[in-house]
Design a protein that fits this description.
single chain; 182 residues; alpha+beta; NADH Oxidase; 4 helices; 24% strand
Length: 182
């Protein structure tokens, strides 16, 4: 799809169909893989699909599915298991949270953002999250998927359930799934 069309179709949606990413289905795995690569994968050994301040690459993506949670390892384009627990509903309070195929949690490693004031660290991790989120919006528009990024996230509780370290901070969560009726 031409970028102009993806931009025109990009929108936040809050209603999702019941279809899920089936981990035993090659087409679903490829779609999920393509989504994660578009979001934050490597284009070259040093360059990602989204920019980051001073190329710090401080953001990790956590993928929450019904079967559990994984951390995306972009260098190998693979998922590393974190827990077998379905944490989708634990990622927010909105009524649609936990009903979509996936929740993508953006986790910043604040220790990688050096030489900034505390406010500068916050600005950096949120701006870099925004770049990645916009790639997800454009990918979803191009593939006919629904998505919305969310700030209303119980960050401390979700961080504990994901086993995050103190220097890891959840910035936002983005819901991704098939459109309502699919």
């Amino acid at each position: 799809m031409p970028l102009r069309d993806a931009i025109r179709l990009r929108r936040s949606e809050r209603q999702y169909g019941s279809r899920r990413f089936r981990l035993d289905d090659e087409a679903d795995l490829q779609l999920l893989s393509d989504l994660l690569w578009a979001a934050w994968g490597y284009i070259t050994p040093k360059r990602r699909s989204a920019p980051s301040s001073h190329n710090r690459q401080e953001t990790d993506l956590y993928v929450l599915l019904p079967e559990g949670a994984w951390r995306y390892e972009p260098a190998e384009n693979r998922l590393v298991p974190v827990t077998g627990e379905d944490l989708r509903a634990a990622s927010g309070a909105q009524d649609y949270v936990g009903t979509a195929a996936a929740e993508l949690a953006f986790v910043a490693r604040t220790d990688k953002v050096t030489g900034k004031t505390p406010r500068g660290v916050v600005e950096t991790i949120y701006v870099d999250t925004g770049f990645i989120s916009q790639n997800i919006y454009l990918f979803c528009a191009s593939e006919g998927l629904a998505t919305v990024v969310r700030a209303m996230v119980p960050k401390e509780a979700l961080a504990a359930r994901l086993g995050l370290a103190p220097e890891q901070e959840i910035t936002l969560v983005q819901t991704v799934g098939w459109k309502s009726g699919e």
